[in-house]
Amino acid sequence: MQLTSVLIKGGVIVTMDSRRRVFRDGAVLIDKGVISQVGKTVDVKPERRAEFEIDAKGKVVLPGLVDTHVHLAQALIRGSADDTSLIDWLQKFVWPLQGNFDAQDGKVSAELCMLEMIKSGTTTFLESLLHSRYGFDGIAEAVDRAGIRGFLAKTVMGLPGYGSEKSIMHPGMIENAETCLREVETYFKRWNGKADERIRVWYGARSLGGCTPELYAQIAEGARLLGTGVTMHLSEVQEDVRYTKNEFSKMPAEFMDEVGLVGPNVVFAHGVWLSESEWPILARKGAHVAHCPSSNMKLSSGIAKVPEMMQAGVNVGIGCDGGTSNNSYDMIREM
Ligand SMILES: [Zn+2]
């Protein structure tokens, strides 16, 4: 249900507009879902009494937060994998658990995750890897009900490994490349732009070692044809760099660029081990990085060079990652 007018008054309004204005004892008037006035409480004057008023005294009012890297399925397995590093963490804990999920698990985990995001001020998220077994339709319906904005990336993979570690994936997590590509198109047609434009369907490319170069190129082409986005974990751990250097004599971002997967519609998660020579490639092509500090600390992945990356012109957002790599989906904590 959408109220026709809402007045939030008496709070500290952090506008995040081009002038970065902040109003103490400020107010926000929302008419039919659109902000119509922002300013000091005394200056914000609704034409008629607002249908709903919120007293924000002692509170900060700020725009919705955007979580640029989320795993909905991990809310349900929070706390199940501590004190380990990425590849072991995936192979011994996360993949066996997620590899036994069914559509009901996928739905309740997504609902729990979205509840936590909404409670802590997140209004938009990018889910990076939805396996078919989590039940895409049930999750999209949950996004619709929750009222949040969800960018849902369906996993696309072809190889059951990570980097040079071949065939390490739990059987329940393995998907077939052709089926993955077909499903992205199916879900795109069914859900993209639905729920008042709140749902978007993207490609979720598996990490390095999970797709052949040809499959990455197919993902890039598919996204171009559908006019949609792609997200992928990149250079999260040093193994990413070792893999592309050994197999393709290239750094990870150079390799992604060669297969056509660097562009303004691409969000790379982590980028911890992206080097100085790779930042200009992302900056020039307008690709984005989702920085996930808690996850990188918990899995001892490393420390991303965020100020330097931004100095080089790369657009960097923040992500909470997952319930097992962070144990929280709270963007305030992440900031
Ligand atoms: Zn992740």
The assigned structural class equals alpha/beta
Arrangement of strands in the largest sheet? 13-12-11-10-9-8-7-6-14
- Main sheet, how many strands, which sense, barrel? 9 strands, parallel
Kindly state the number of beta strands: 14
Q: How far is it from the N-terminal to the C-terminal residue, by CA?
A: 31 Å
Q: In terms of per-residue confidence, which ranges show pLDDT below 50 for 5 or more consecutive residues?
A: none
Distinct helical segment count:
12
Report strand %: 25-35%
Topology as a string of helices (H) and strands (E): EEEEEEHHEHEHHEHEHHEHEHHEEH
What Rg, in angstroms, do the CA atoms define?
A: 21 Å
Ligand catalogue: zinc ion
Helix content: 25-40%
Assign an overall shape: globular
Topology:
Elements: E1 5-14, E2 22-31, E3 34-40, E4 52-55, E5 60-61, E6 65-71, H1 86-98, H2 103-119, E7 122-130, H3 136-146, E8 149-156, H4 177-191, H5 194-197, E9 199-205, H6 213-226, E10 230-234, H7 238-248, H8 252-258, E11 266-270, H9 279-285, E12 288-291, H10 293-298, H11 306-311, E13 315-318, E14 321-322, H12 331-334
Parallel strand pairs: 1-4, 1-5, 6-7, 6-14, 7-8, 8-9, 9-10, 10-11, 11-12, 12-13
Antiparallel strand pairs: 1-2, 2-3
Bound molecules: zinc ion.
Zinc ion binds at residues 69, 71, 128, 233, 269, 321-322.
